[in-house]
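Self-study notes.
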Amino acid sequence: MTTSRNHMQADIRHIPGLRRLDPLDRTVVALTLAVWAMHYVMRTMLSLMPGDTWIEPGSLMARTVASSIGFALCLGIHALLKKVGSDHPWRLLGYTVALSFPASVLLTWMGEYVFRYFTNYYVMYPGRWMSFWELSETYKAYQWNFFAWAALYAAARNNAEVRRRDQQLADANSAAQQAQLLALRLQINPHFLFNTLNTLAGLIVLGRTTESEKMVLSLSRFLRYTLARTPSQLTTLADEIGMLRQYLEIEAARFSDRLKVTWDVPTECMQAMVPSLVLLPLVENALKYGLGGSERPVEIVIGARHENGQLLLSVEDDGGSAHGQGNGGLGIGLSNARQRLDALYGDDAHLDSGPLDNGWRSVIRVPWQEDQVLEPAA
């Protein structure tokens, strides 16, 4: 039964002009066509019950025209109810049933003239023309058909309304998550820009032109990368590493020779997909607490590996274990990264951060994937 309905709806979509209708209108057309087609078939089968084995062509034509009028009346009710705009299921059912009574009366009256035009039935039985018994029997048949259509129509409208509200809610959630991701990403750039511009100003004052030009170029490449990415966009780890190299070249000018960076990223991981700027808050955290809180040289190790269907990204430093002291290690950088991962992956991604014997280590776990499209987690 479900397969037949699906095939019928698929065929209806190919009717010229029907594609321009909205999904609800297409559903109503398919539903109405099915109801009146069933009515046509049942009335035709009932005409054979007395034992006739032949059906008069005029009767078939009259029944076709009458069913077409019923089809048109149902669509008229639908058009009227769309203007009313009632989406409460029981109220909608009440309106539909109420409108079905005059529609049945009108179809009964028109049907009499249709059968008189296409058949000789009322020539053979002139006493039945517009007789109360004849009209009442015809009216009951049409009214029950309208009742069936009204119930199915109200159910279809209610289902469409539920789906519309679900889609609106999903769109609203998606928009909110996109806005959240954008806000989180914008937290990164101002802090970094202020530090960079201050360092650049210092280099200019000292007359270190070559280093100033190099920093400006690195800053330009870094900003081009960050501004070209949408908050939920994925990028290859290779691109992310390239962005971090530009970033760390800029920071190296601030910390002179006290910063050492080690890259432990296997070639097989370079094509894995990661959220853009996902490692930047972790590296910023290492610079702020590891290098910024120490007078000695500090090494930052940036690593990656493929493990059990996940990509593990790590940022480790040996600058002491006082990261985020006083706030449980949940500084702005780490909190930012956690919120981004939660918005993008939900429970499928994790960020673990904690002290080592003489340093700090943060590890991000995300699903291993190569597709470039990622929708925010519902």
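Second protein, same conventions, sequence then structure:
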Amino acid sequence: MSQKPDITDLTICRAAFAAWVFIYHVDLHLHFSQVLGGLSVLITHGYMGVDGFFILSGLVLLHTHREFDAVEHGPLRTEFRWATQGGVLRFYAKRLVRIYPVHLATIFILLALVGGSVALGMPPHSPQRFGLATLVENLFLVQGWGADHFGAWNYPAWSVSTEWAGYLLFPLFALILTYFIRDVSVQVIIAIFPILGVIYFFSGHSLNLAFGAGLIRFFPEFIAGMAAWRITSSIADYTFARRIFLWIGVMLLLGGAVLGVDLVTVIGLWSLIFAFYLQADSERPPLLGRRPVLHFLGLLSYCFYMSFAIAELLTVRAFQHFGWQPTGQKLIFAAMMTALTFILAILLRGFVEQPCRRAANRWLQVAPTPLSVPVTEKPQSLF
């Protein structure tokens, strides 16, 4: 759990994904995308930033936790390193410390806000979002497993709940992917996108599956990210491979986003993330360069993502108090929601996320696992 440097390109991706989701939610109030003509779909499909997080999470976890890589010793014996390097429980503890403190802090903040509003005679606009049963689901991080259908409490946390489900099954997925030869992972990747196509078709030509249906969207993309790590070492040294995946990713991502075809967008996201990781694994400089501001925003992305719903609630309340309409004061609404989100994200990172990770580093200290990428380019997980 040590605070280690991360892969610059992937960290910048995290910032971009969080910004894309944030702009999408701002647009739900302001409808500014309507004046963008053909580019409006790029904004109205901003929920696809979450899909980028899901893919990135699977890749980074398998990169970071090499103890779950099955190591073959002859034809009849395989050593599973997780059995001798702290085990599955240590992994679960490390992942829970990574996501839960910020999640819990946002729930406490919402409890205070909702309680204060009720005390002042201003009950929440959607009281079903703040019930006791849904509070328990959120505390146990199961609200995204099929129970929550309306985004209870801190509604962006539905994706954190699905991530937690992925963490619980990660040792099994990692064992399967690394036990078999790399060709199996290639086959897994080839199979996953048609599966997503079926989901896309039967979901009304959309992958905007959240809350109760989030796991259907999450697992194929999470596994695709893990499989990407598995095949990296066999092609990372080929410059043409990195370029092909980069340009395919850019074209499919932009084309799918502009046309509003979520399936194409997901394939583009996977290809682009894979190209960035290939670049890092080949020990080349970041494709996006050293961008300190964007790098910082990437490190802030989890807290930012977990903060915007609270900022949205406060901004809407303020507008109701003054009798303003968001569409009539677009700049004020956007500026206020953005400022509140950044302020809260910075506070959560400085007073919750980082102190908890430092404490976990002391409690869960383990010997580092050798990595194939440079130590200056080791990624952190998405959440």
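Instructor comment on the second fold: Residues 72-78, 367-382 have pLDDT under 50 and may be disordered.
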